[in-house]
């Protein structure tokens, strides 16, 4: 399996996702500023992967005897929507204040996240039937987490169990994470996958060619409201209309029990991501673009949330039960 995040005691190596699928290269981070750049410029992306990378950014600051508070602030300000970033940084800052090793805490975070993703796959594959065609959006695989993935972990473990499945991957404009990353991962492991343009998902549903939709998440509020890659909300509405189960796969570290919808900042990225493809301008000069990176899917559009502790309905009482006995501080 791919190793997107590799810690080598004094440096962090990240698969440079900007260069996939044509080149499989690692981006080397020697200090926390390199990690901040990697997160902001999407060398690494995906909520759990961002959290792990940020934790190792704090570890590099410790190793290099740099200002830990400054490293924390710099890394925290890289991207605003994915809650795993703040969760991991706060764990590392807490370890530092308690006189513990940040390096060991970062390693622990990565190990935990990998085991969690494995459990999500083992639990989630039970919702997949033999012969299913599954639609997924963006990339919620090993590249987005460190190992297995969330939505793709469900797909992987269904495949490992011998179920004959195939995957439809939305291209996911404007950065094409579905076409470039999800298709690369699944093809790498021999899991049947086809790529579609985002706008054809509804037509395939209308034709009866999609059995389930499984996506990841960047933040889930206590009432089940889910924030994920732009286009997720549209898929949820289409799935609801066509009576297709719509599942979100995410670890507990993606839940935010404290924020309200008004607190969540939706990242708006550079409009050039929309205006250009591979440095070729496709939008007329003088025409501006809107480029929100995430959208909000209401709980009533979600069939279930697949976590490492089980599959739940997106209801506040069920989400609160997940955290019973867990001390929780997201930001």
TrEMBL record:
Signal peptide boundaries: none
Example GO molecular function: S-methyl-5-thioribose-1-phosphate isomerase activity
Entry keyword Amino-acid biosynthesis: yes
Keyword terms of this UniProt record: Amino-acid biosynthesis, Isomerase, Methionine biosynthesis
Active site feature: 218 (proton donor)
Site (Transition state stabilizer): 138
BP terms from Gene Ontology: L-methionine salvage from methylthioadenosine
Entry EC no(s): 5.3.1.23
Record carries keyword Isomerase: yes
Annotated substrate binding sites: 45-47, 79, 177, 228-229
Catalytic activity: 5-(methylsulfanyl)-alpha-D-ribose 1-phosphate = 5-(methylsulfanyl)-D-ribulose 1-phosphate
InterPro entries in UniProt: IF-2B-related (IPR000649), IF-M1Pi (IPR005251), IF_2B-like_C (IPR042529), Initiation_fac_2B_a/b/d (IPR011559), M1Pi_N (IPR027363), NagB/RpiA_transferase-like (IPR037171)
Coiled coil: none
Biological role: Catalyzes the interconversion of methylthioribose-1-phosphate (MTR-1-P) into methylthioribulose-1-phosphate (MTRu-1-P).
Sequence similarity: Belongs to the EIF-2B alpha/beta/delta subunits family. MtnA subfamily.
UniProt protein name: Putative methylthioribose-1-phosphate isomerase
Organism: Methanocaldococcus infernus (strain DSM 11812 / JCM 15783 / ME)
């Amino acid at each position: 399996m791919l190793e997107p995040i590799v810690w080598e005691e004094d440096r962090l190596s990240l698969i440079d996702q900007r260069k996939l699928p044509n080149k499989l290269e690692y981006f080397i981070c020697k200090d926390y500023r390199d990690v901040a750049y990697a997160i902001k410029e999407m060398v690494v992306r995906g909520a759990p992967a961002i959290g792990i990378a940020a934790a190792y950014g704090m570890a590099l600051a410790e190793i290099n005897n740099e200002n830990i508070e400054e490293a924390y602030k710099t890394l925290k300000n890289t991207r605003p929507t994915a809650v795993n970033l703040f969760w991991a940084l706060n764990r590392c800052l807490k370890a530092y204040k308690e006189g513990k090793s940040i390096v060991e805490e970062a390693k622990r975070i990565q190990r935990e996240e990998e085991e969690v993703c494995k459990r999500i796959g083992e639990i989630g594959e039970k919702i997949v039937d033999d012969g299913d065609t599954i639609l997924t959006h963006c990339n919620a695989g090993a590249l987005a987490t460190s190992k297995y993935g969330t939505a793709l972990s469900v797909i992987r473990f269904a495949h490992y169990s011998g179920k004959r499945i195939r995957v439809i991957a939305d291209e996911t404009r404007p950065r094409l994470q579905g076409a470039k990353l999800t298709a690369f991962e699944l093809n790498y492991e021999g899991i049947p996958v086809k790529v579609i343009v985002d706008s054809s998902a509804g037509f395939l549903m209308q034709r009866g060619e999609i059995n389930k939709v499984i996506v990841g998440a960047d933040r889930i509020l206590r009432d089940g409201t889910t924030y994920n890659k732009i286009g997720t909300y549209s898929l949820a509405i289409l799935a609801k209309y066509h009576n297709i189960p719509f599942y979100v796969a995410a670890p507990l570290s993606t839940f935010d029990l404290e924020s309200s919808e008004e607190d969540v900042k939706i990242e708006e990225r550079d409009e050039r991501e929309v205006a250009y493809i591979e440095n070729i301008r496709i939008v007329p000069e003088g025409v501006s673009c809107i480029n929100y990176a995430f959208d909000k899917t209401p709980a009533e559009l979600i069939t279930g949330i697949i976590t490492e502790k089980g599959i739940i309905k997106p209801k506040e009482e069920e989400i609160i039960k997940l955290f019973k006995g867990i001390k929780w501080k997201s930001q």
